[in-house]
Amino acid sequence: MKTLSSSSFSSCLLSLSILLTLPVSAFDSDRIITSVQSPDRLEKDLERDINRKPEQVLNFFDIRPGMTVLDIFSGGGYYTELLSYAVGSEGKVISHNNKAYIKYVAETLEKRYYNNRLPNVKRIEAEANDLSLPANSVDVAFLILAYHDIYYSPKKGSWPKIDRKVFLNNIYQSLKPGGILAIIDHHAEPDSPTTTGHDLHRISVNTVITQVKEAGFKLHERAYFLENDEDILTKHMYAPKLRGKTSRFVLKFLKPLDVVKQLVDERNIP
């Protein structure tokens, strides 16, 4: 049986990884427009589009048909549904929630998945520290408006304490070489402490960048289309007149391509 040499195997993986990071416009930008304009979307989701700008989000994070996308802390599934349409029947969306989130959005989830509306979505329930998927199996991981929840700690204990390093490492391991970690969250003041994650449901973009880079990711690109100069960064994101209108940072991180060499070494390919 013919086998690939180390250099050939490495080249194949590198080519695939580079392909996955090419701009979505080179492939199927129209698919994203069609996804956002789908007549099957829930009315409540459509109302959120004006502030969430989903078409720009999906384009920025290079979502396209055939991908496997992990939607972490997906909540009621706003992005899960959009991703489901965008990756198509040849792709897959893994929609994650923990126990607390599922309880909080139970009614929305019932409507979201009624009568198998989204057949290419696999739902999983796991606490953040236990989120484990096969290594190198995911093209894009979405972490939208949820990074700050790493620091959420209600007194009643309904939200188990998250080990940030374990959580980010689990995401890192699940992504393919060159895979994307997509993060959007509510701005806190630049030098604010991580306690704002609990107190205001906000987080400093500087904190996020530093921590995610420490986890092995590379910051590839930042976008500013969800910024809002009228936001008050010291107020709770649920404050009257602010909910749904906060200023948000948009970050695209990559799992480095040099992990290709590691994959080759693990297989002991001559």
TrEMBL record:
<feature type="domain" description="Methyltransferase">
    <location>
        <begin position="64"/>
        <end position="193"/>
    </location>
</feature>
<dbReference type="InterPro" id="IPR029063">
    <property type="entry name" value="SAM-dependent_MTases_sf"/>
</dbReference>
<keyword id="KW-0732">Signal</keyword>
<protein>
    <submittedName>
        <fullName>Putative methyltransferase</fullName>
    </submittedName>
</protein>
<dbReference type="Pfam" id="PF13847">
    <property type="entry name" value="Methyltransf_31"/>
</dbReference>
<dbReference type="InterPro" id="IPR016980">
    <property type="entry name" value="S-AdoMet-dep_MeTrfase_Alr7345"/>
</dbReference>
<feature type="signal peptide">
    <location>
        <begin position="1"/>
        <end position="26"/>
    </location>
</feature>
<dbReference type="GO" id="GO:0008168">
    <property type="term" value="F:methyltransferase activity"/>
</dbReference>
<dbReference type="InterPro" id="IPR025714">
    <property type="entry name" value="Methyltranfer_dom"/>
</dbReference>
<keyword id="KW-0489">Methyltransferase</keyword>
<dbReference type="GO" id="GO:0032259">
    <property type="term" value="P:methylation"/>
</dbReference>
<keyword id="KW-0808">Transferase</keyword>
